[in-house]
Amino acid sequence: MLNEETHFEKTKLNTVNHPLSYFLLSSLTRHRYAKRGHYDKRLIFAIVRAVPVVHVAFVDRDGLPQCVPMVAAIEETEDDEVFVYLHGSSVTRIMKNNGEGEPLCITATLVDAFVMSLTPFHHSVRYRSAVLHGTTFPFSESYDGDVEAAKVHALHVTTNAICSQRWENTRSSPTSAEMKATGVIRLRVESASAKVNETGPNDEAKDLNNEELVTKTWTGILPFKMVAGDPQPSSYSCKEVPSHIRDFQAEFEAKDRAAFPEPKK
């Protein structure tokens, strides 16, 4: 099994201002626009929780790089370990590739605006992003070795990560066929970082001093956001909309608000 000491090259950086931060990896340390880098767990996990879909990168058994969109759920344990659960069809490439100690990289991105500047070179994006590195961890290490119980727990956590209390408001006892058809990855997070850009146009002095250019060029930001719409029932849905469905819009918006850095004091 690969471990953090051998698979990832660590770098000794000062994290005294981030008591709940990850020990930084050289591969995750921000060099360009370093001020945009964040290493506190609260922000990193909030960004992952706020995105409907993450992207998971891995190298398959043929040695080819792969990247797939997946739903992710974060679980923080009492002994301060952090796991990410990923689920999908058991016949997909990533599930077949899921052995113990396999390295994975997860990315999550929220885009808030396009930044329009005086020149195309200085156009940019306002964003909040997170990158997590870790290795797959066996389900047999929990629930006293009861792999099926651990897998059901992972599915419970993943379902409620999409919509709180959804597991409890469905037929939540998976059949043997459903368990066989569903693959679950348990990733132990070993290092992570976030990067946030909340800036506006930042043009060069020579362009700002060009009166003709400034006069004729619109600059600013084009903000946008992803929102949750009104629930749309199926043809066989129950008539009354349950509270966990009514609360989904507010929950979705709350996750987005939580995924910003703490205001500087």
UniProtKB/TrEMBL annotation:
It comes from the Eukaryota. InterPro entries: Pyridox_Oxase-rel, Split_barrel_FMN-bd. Pfam families: Pyridox_ox_2 (PF12900). This is BQ5605_C003g02498 protein.
